[in-house]
């Protein structure tokens, strides 16, 4: 893992959390969208918070795809779940909202889970076989098929 | 319908906002609202058939989980086929990266599956409460992804990763509730 890759994972986390909050903030401002006034959707998109939120979520999607190009799905998903923690911490320390003990427990669990995978490799190496997976019949099988092909 | 829309709005303004939903919003804002208009009138959960409503809710939650797991697996497979984006960008330029990604069938199917997950979410919200649907869908998706990644992507999900997936799923269930 290079520094650049950690930066991409941090980008996934931050863009997702920031995009969600901006979108949520903007949607609260625009209010109800009724089916009789579908142009309300357009006004919602024109709201700066909603527009920035959508841009941030596009940035999230781009960084998420980048991360998936060099890391396992089971590595990227838990690693970027820190976004939930980030949202709760922003709610507590920036918005001064009350965070219940059960939510603090949730934060601790997610942080612990991220700590667990952070120590391991980020990508399963498919090129090299595991030592116990290499068996003689397979080797003979490939040799025979090669012989038949040539 | 009014009840459904107020639930939808409450969900959209609720934190944290699931990514599948966000993706659906980005990809198809107008089509999304068009689909809402076509959903038939739902019966009220406060009526006599509470158990039926719960059954519907859980079916819709399972549909969300299934669709978003399929979507994530397909997107992960697509990006493994595209290859290391950073290296490809330096070698061939950003245009090639974008072109290869958008031209990958797995990517397109993955995005479609994410859109299906988004619409399943709309259905789930019309039958069940946000406080049940959001945490249940989010945490079950984490577990489902670990299983699917092992089976379909042949990722080496060792004990470390199982524990991580379990802890994160439990934590997300607590935070999203």
User: What is the radius of gyration of chain B computed over CA atoms, rounded to a whole number of angstroms?
Assistant: 18 Å
User: Main β-sheet of chain B: number of strands, strand sense, barrel status?
Assistant: none
> Element order, helices and strands of chain A?
HHHHHHH
Largest interface: A-B, 59 and 59 residues
Element order, helices and strands of chain B?
Answer: HHHHHHHHH
The unreliable regions of chain A are: 128-150
Question: How many H/I helical runs of chain A?
Answer: 7
Cα-atom radius of gyration of chain A: 23 Å
Largest sheet of chain A, in brief, is: none
Taking the alpha carbons of the first and last residues of chain A, their distance comes to 41 Å
Shape summary of chain A = flat
Q: How far apart are the first and last residues' alpha carbons of chain B, in Å?
A: 24 Å
Secondary-structure class of chain A: mainly alpha
What does it look like?
The complex is a heterodimer of chains A (150) and B (177). Chain A is mainly alpha-helical and 150 residues long. Chain A has one domain (3-149). Chain A has seven helices and no strands. Chain A has helices spanning 3-30, 39-46, 48-70, 73-80, 82-93, 101-118, 136-149. The longest helix of chain A has 28 residues, at 3-30. Chain A is flat. Residues 128-150 of chain A have low confidence and may be disordered. With 177 residues, chain B is mainly alpha-helical. Chain B has helices at 2-12, 19-27, 29-38, 50-82, 85-92, 94-102, 105-127, 130-152, 159-176. In chain B, helix 4 (50-82) packs antiparallel against helix 7 (105-127). Chain B starts with a helix and ends with a helix. The model of chain B is unreliable at 28-48 (pLDDT under 50). Classes of the chains: A mainly alpha (150), B mainly alpha (177). The interface between A and B is large, with 59 and 59 residues.
